[in-house]
Amino acid sequence: QGKPGLAAKMLYELIYEPPTKIALLGPPLSDPFVSTATITPFFNLLQVGYIAKTSTVKEQSDYPSRFMINYIEDDLNALRIKMMDTFGWKKVATLAYNDDIFISQYDARIIFGAIRSSKAPKVFCEVYKQGLYGRRYVWILTGASMYENWVANIREEDLPCPREQLYAATDRMLTLNQKQLSLSSNETFSGWIPADYDTWMRNIVAQYPGLLLSRSHPFAYDAAWALAIGLNNSLQYLGNKELKDFDYNDSAIFNDIERGMSEVVFDGVSGPVSFKEGRREGISFIELNIGDDRTDVGQFLPGSEIQWFVRPESLFKGNTIPKDSFSYITRSVEYSKASLVVVLILSTIGFAVAIACLAFNVYYKNNKNIKMSSPRINNVIIAGAMLIYIAVILASVDYVGISQSYSEVYCMISVWIISIGFTMSFGALFSKTWRVHVLFRKDDIRRKSIKDTQLFGVVTGLVLIDIFILLPWNIIHPLKVKLIETKSEDTTKDVIMTETNSICDHELKIYWLAAQYVYKGLLLAFGAFIAWETRHISIPSINDSKYIGFCVYNVVVVCALYVPVHTFLSPEDVTLKYVLSSCIVVFATTLVLCILFIPKVNINVPITSSFGLFCLHFLFTSMPSINYSKFH
Prior knowledge:
This protein is of the alpha/beta class. The longest helix has 33 residues, at 407-439. The strands form four sheets. It has an eight-stranded mixed β-sheet with strand order 5-4-6-7-8-12-13-14, with no helix packed on it. Helix 9 (337-363) runs antiparallel to helix 11 and helix 15 (545-568) packs antiparallel against helix 16. It has 17 helices and 17 strands. Strand 6 (110-114), helix 4 and strand 7 (138-142) form a beta-alpha-beta unit.
């Protein structure tokens, strides 16, 4: 009846009822077995179990009088560990179902489960729903509690999900089992061939209508034989005593009987029988479940290796042993060599153009026409352009990761260089246009004179505004290195790749950038306005406003492209952001230099030295639209 209290009561009645008992078979169910196993040691009464699968009595130190002919769940642990070792699994999950409690450990692919067939439909419907099946997952359950054909035998009204989903979720599931009936065709110690014994037993039960034969009947048969052999073994240790001399207070005879049971070794109808610490040692089997078919694919005897009947790889989809978890690889973002080379080439060309312009401007600074265009202010424009090129080169250094060791310093240095460089170049352009605007708004040009020193003052003032913004930023909220991680998953190789990229960032950076953008935006807008106001003035040697206007419009358009790219493009798009930002900056800066200095070639500038010829040739040989006949 499965009532532990009733079992204890009946045991007491049996003990005090003559004759004296020297051993006890059963009871078959787990709870009554546990109840009686706590009592029998006090009466020195040997107890042999043959069906109860409880792990409660697994420790012989707690239950010294019990021996178990059947296997319990814990007996499969040796096989589980051997499978982990064989397949290289170091991380597994365990899953158990107890009433309405679902217990699991996550982030693993290999799941050892203890689930009964009655609870399995609900579990595996959820497995299907969560996608915890297929090539990357291995489910390993206990075959004794998962009946063969359990999916096919579920009634339609009891299905928690379509039957096809259960078949999909359990496809190629592995079960670990010990056979109730041996597969051997050899004669056992009892004289039976296991298959013949099974036929004989079924024929007997068939004579009694309504009587059901337990699947564990070979265990019960072997339990009787094991007890008989154990008692027979004990005779050699009794000395002058006999088994009939036993009483419930005689621990000496009990110890002899226990010693005899520990030496039991024979081939039973359930397989080889022997005991270690009161628990049976025997062969465990690995079974592959495909649809409703369950096939033995390997066997294991504790202390030995797994004997495979098939190639182990063939147990899994794709003939590949699944990994126990993702392999995690972390690396820095790989830079594009092609992109780096292109940007560096463009930057080098731009820097060379700036040097050529500077050489031309310095060499002809005393020429009347060049002198009237404020060559010193032009030098400021060129110097600002050079700073911008340097900023691009620093961005290249950071792109390849060389600057990571000192990137805390690099973060603010880059901001200072590109900000001051922009202000110097555009501020000088702005000051020249402002001078023309002031001069030609008066009727008498001779009454007003604006010297280069005043223009330098304008540029210096604009640079000071930059410093007033950058210095507090540098002190209060300096940019820090922030590590950006981008994860990608390669499901074919079970690899999660984490690519890291260092960026300069601060949670309040947007406010400082906004201050820069507002200031530079107002400067651009005012410069464009002045250039528009002076667009009709046509004294080429004095007025650069026409070309400066082109420069201003060019810078405005380019800034409209650069700011969104630099600010809003995802940090994960490292190469795209680097290439677009660098190319935009180099293109705009070089275009400004070309717009300002190429038209000066059309002014009659005598070239009287090989140096001057070389500078101009270096700067303008790539410009086929220039009329070289004007050089003389």
